[in-house]
Every structure is written in C-alpha cells, then in structure tokens.
Design brief:
This protein has 462 residues and is α/β, with parallel strands linked by helices. It has two domains: 180 residues, Beta Barrel (Lyase, Ornithine Decarboxylase, Chain A, domain 1), CATH 2.40.37.10; 212 residues, TIM Barrel (Alpha-Beta Barrel), CATH 3.20.20. The protein contains twelve helices and 24 strands. The strands form four sheets. Strands 4, 17, 18, 19, 20, 21, 22, 23 and 24 form a nine-stranded mixed β-sheet that branches. Strands 5-6-7-8-9-13-15-16 form an eight-stranded parallel beta barrel, surrounded by six helices. A three-stranded antiparallel β-sheet has the order 1-2-3. A hairpin with a 2-residue loop joins β23 and β24. α5 crosses α6 and α8 runs parallel beside α9. The longest helix is centred in the middle third of the chain and has 21 residues. The chain is globular. The N terminus is likely disordered. It binds ligand LLP.
Length: 462
C-alpha cells in the first residue's frame, strides 16, 4: 500500500490536514469548514475573487518578517537591511518593506522603476547587476540611487561618466568574489571564483578596481560587497566570506590608504520548504554573522565597518502560498505494485519554475476542505506540454482529491511569481494580499488580452 512505503516520508491521515508547521504562513489555519485560512481569509473566497491559480501573500507576515530582519541585523551591526527585490517586487511590497525600515536592492531598470513608483527614496536604494545598461545606470543616477555595486571594470567608466554628466558624486561598492559558494546545508570554499559575478578578491582584481575608482572624481568608494549564495541554513559560509572580505579591506587600507567604511554581505538566508528543513532562525543567524565580522575585524586590527545585508527569500518566501485548482487525477502504476497519483493543476512551471530548475521541494495540502481519506503517494503536476512540468515531485495527498479541489503549495512567496513566464501562453496569476481578514490586489491576473496586446498582428479584424 502506498502509505506504508518510506518514501517520501509517510504521513497519517490525521496529520495530512495540518498547516501549523513552519513552512506555512504564521497565520495559516483550518477554519470551521476545514478550509485553509490566511490572515483570516478563506482561500476559497480568495479564488472566487481572483481566480486560480493565485498567489496569496500575507501582508502581515511580509511586514513582520521585514521588521524582524531589520531589528536582528541592526542589532548585529547593520546600518541598512536591503530587501532583495528579485525575490518578488510590486509597488505594494516596495511600500511595505520601506515602511518597515528596509532599503531595497534592485537589479534592473524594471525593479528600479517599481521602487521609484512606490515612492522609495533614492538613498534607500542600492543597485546591482553584472551587466547594467547605460540606460539603467543613467536611470539610477538620475533618481539618486544611494549606492551602485560595481561588478566589472567596464562599469567603473560607465558609472563615472554618467555621474559626471549628472554632476553628482556617486557612492559605489565593489562586488568581490571570495571563493565561497554556499547553499542550504553546505558551502564550498574553493574554486567558485569561476562565475560571472563580481571581481576576484584573491587575484588582486578588486584592489585594481579600487585603485581606478579612487582616481575618478565622480565616484566615491564606500565599501565592499560579497554575496555567497542562496538558501543558506547556517553561518559557516558567511564566516569564510567575512574573513576574506576583512583581509581584503585590510590590504586595501595598507596598500592604498583607503578605508573601507561598509561591508555588504548580501543575502541568502534560507527558509523551510519542507518539514525537516531547519535553517537558523533570523535572530540567531544575524547574531552569528555579526559576531563573526566583529571577531575577524578585531583579529585583523581594523575598525568594525558598517554592515549591510540583502535578504530576499527570507522576507517574502514564507509569507506566500500558491493556490491551484485540481483538474485531473490519474493513477499510474509504478514498479513494485506502487501507485503514483498524478494530480494536474491549472498552473505549473510557468508560475513555479523552481522544481524543474533546481529540483526544489515543496509542501502541499488540500486547501478547500479537510479529508481523512487514506493518503496516497502523489505528484502535483502542471498543465504545460512538458513532462518535467512538476510542481511538487513527491508528496502525500488524501486519496479522494478530485477535480475542483483547491491545493495550496507553501513558501512560494519568493522566486515564483518573480520568475514566472508565459509558457504555453498562460497568463500569469494574480497576487492577492491578506491582512486582518481582508484581501487586496497586489498584482492583477494577466489576461489573454494582455498577451495579445503585445502582438501587432493580433489586432482584431473589423
Ligand atoms: N543579494 C544579491 C547580490 C543576490 O544576488 C541575491 C540573490 C540576494 C541578495 C538575495 O538572496 P536571497 O536572500 O533571496 O537568497 N532564483 C533562485 C535564487 C537566486 C538568488 C539570486 N540572488 C531560487 O529560486 O532559489
């Protein structure tokens, strides 16, 4: 029987309805009707209003997580905690995080335009990108973006030229690759300078960039930047990165007399996607990183610089879920007489590419009702023309899941809507926010008319 196998971790029919675990939004619960509720909003009502598939983002939780990150990292020595907009950005989200005291890290003209439209002050913004266009640089400098992170030699001249043209002295950081790549449970501290981002800390390339910047009157170097990876569960990778950045700062001071006032250690703080994921909590991670930097600076004999961080996933990831409607259910016989139940939903790899792209794992629950049917080994798949179109590879769902049921996938607030596509010409889902029992539109659902509007040959014949 499916439920007696050890894969992917058995569940009882009783616990399968549970939404109290750390992967679900803090406010998630079952209401009297057995339906999932977020911030007091019944997900069935959300789908009635916004259609399925639907991203639901708890405003309450984005705000509380933003505030928590700001408090934790400020206590650990940060002057600014930037929200990494790539995780998910809209005007509403930009306003929430700004109101909670965060800056915003933008990595394109599009992200910058949204932050600008939200009214985020320029000095709260920092711009990234390994190939910023001249237009993007001009846009950033014209708006008064507080910091631009330099990622290449070409950019030094481009940014200097734009700043001179705008008659400003632009604050910049240099992004250093420190030979550390960190993901989830492990980090590797060799060989990862072989990548497109930043300039090498060990090869003297950062030193050369600093030398060039110091000669340009329209640029002022404020610091060094390092981002070592994403979905990191402990502080070990940050320790190596901090040590290397601090020794780089020391060398720059010794050799060029330039003091590094600011060290930005990027983002990457991990979250739980499935039961068993156990990242350090926000306060513990911040405290550990803060202590590490303080220790490294003390050992190097340099004053503690102002710190900055750029969490993205940690702020929005756990605050979001995706709702899908089930369309078809197929039972497929596997070897050893096992059955896998393929549950097809009305979205898929166009709204969540992470499973196909990274082998990401997710938690799913039947959201529109309770069920005490025997759990069956299931795979939640999308509606795209590709067998790799999988949303949740291995999960247990009640054996009576059927067309019309709503499923909820947890922890989809980061890197799902922001990485969405129109594959198979599916319109992108809406994003609805929840707060105090009320729903609001963060992004409306795309329509087929939106898709047709891009195509000049698609004008309706009169
Ligand atoms: N700062 C920089 C310079 C970054 O490149 C990133 C992420 C962040 C901050 C924010 O990292 P976070 O705290 O969100 O981990 N699409 C992938 C993640 C790519 C992250 C790219 N850079 C995913 O879905 O897992």
């Amino acid at each position: 029987m499916a439920s007696s196998t050890a894969f992917p971790g058995t569940v009882s029919a009783d616990s399968i309805n549970d939404v109290s675990g750390s992967v679900w939004p803090e406010s998630a619960k079952r209401n009297a009707a057995g339906a999932l509720e977020i911030d007091g909003v019944d997900v069935r009502d959300a789908v009635t209003e916004f259609a399925s598939p639907l991203f639901v983002l708890s405003e309450t939780e984005v705000r509380s997580r933003a505030a928590r990150y700001r408090a934790a990292y400020t206590s650990a020595g940060a002057h600014t905690v930037y929200y990494a907009a790539k995780a998910f950005l809209s005007v509403a989200v930009a306003r929430w995080v700004t109101e909670e005291g965060l800056g915003i890290d933008v990595a394109s003209g599009g992200e910058l335009a949204i932050a600008m439209r939200a009214g985020v002050p320029g000095d709260r913004l920092l711009m990234h990108g390994n190939n910023k266009s001249v237009q993007e640089i001009d846009m950033a400098i014209n708006f008064g973006v507080g910091r631009i992170v330099i990622d290449s030699f070409e950019e030094i001249a481009r940014i200097a030229e734009s700043a001179a043209r705008h008659n400003v002295v632009q604050k910049v950081l240099v992004r250093a690759t420190v030979g550390v790549e960190a993901h989830t449970h492990e980090f590797i501290a060799t060989a990862h300078e072989d990548q497109k981002f930043g300039l090498s800390a060990s090869a003297g390339t950062v030193d050369e960039a600093v030398r060039r910047i110091s000669k340009l009157p329209s640029l002022t170097l404020v610091g060094l930047h390092s981002h070592i990876g994403s979905q990191i569960f402990d502080a070990a990778g940050f320790e190596v990165a901090a040590r290397r950045i601090v020794s780089l700062a020391q060398r720059i001071y010794d050799e060029q007399g330039i003091e590094i006032e600011e060290i930005n250690l990027g983002g990457g703080m991990g979250i739980a996607y499935i039961e068993g994921d156990d990242p350090l909590d926000v306060d513990a991670m911040a405290a550990e990183i803060g202590e590490i930097v303080a220790k490294e600076c003390a050992e190097a004999g340099i004053p503690l610089p102002a710190l900055a961080f750029e969490p993205g996933r940690g702020i929005v990831g756990p605050a979001g879920i995706t709702l899908y409607e089930v369309g078809t259910v197929k039972r497929v016989e596997l070897d050893h007489d096992q059955i896998r139940t393929y549950v097809s939903v009305d979205g898929g790899m166009s709204d969540n590419i992470r499973t196909a792209l990274y082998g990401a794992e997710y938690t799913v629950t039947l959201a529109s009702r309770l069920s005490f049917a025997e759990p069956v080994l299931s795979r939640v798949v999308g509606k795209h023309c590709e067998s790799g179109d999988i949303v949740v590879r291995d999960c247990w769902l009640p054996g009576d899941v059927t067309a019309g049921d709503l499923l909820a996938v947890a922890a989809t607030g980061a890197y799902c809507r922001s990485m969405a596509s129109n594959y198979n010409q599916l319109p992108k889902p809406a994003v609805a926010s929840t707060r105090d029992g009320a729903l609001a539109t963060v992004l409306r659902r795309e329509t087929i008319a939106d898709l047709l509007a891009l195509d000049p040959y698609a004008e309706e014949r009169g």
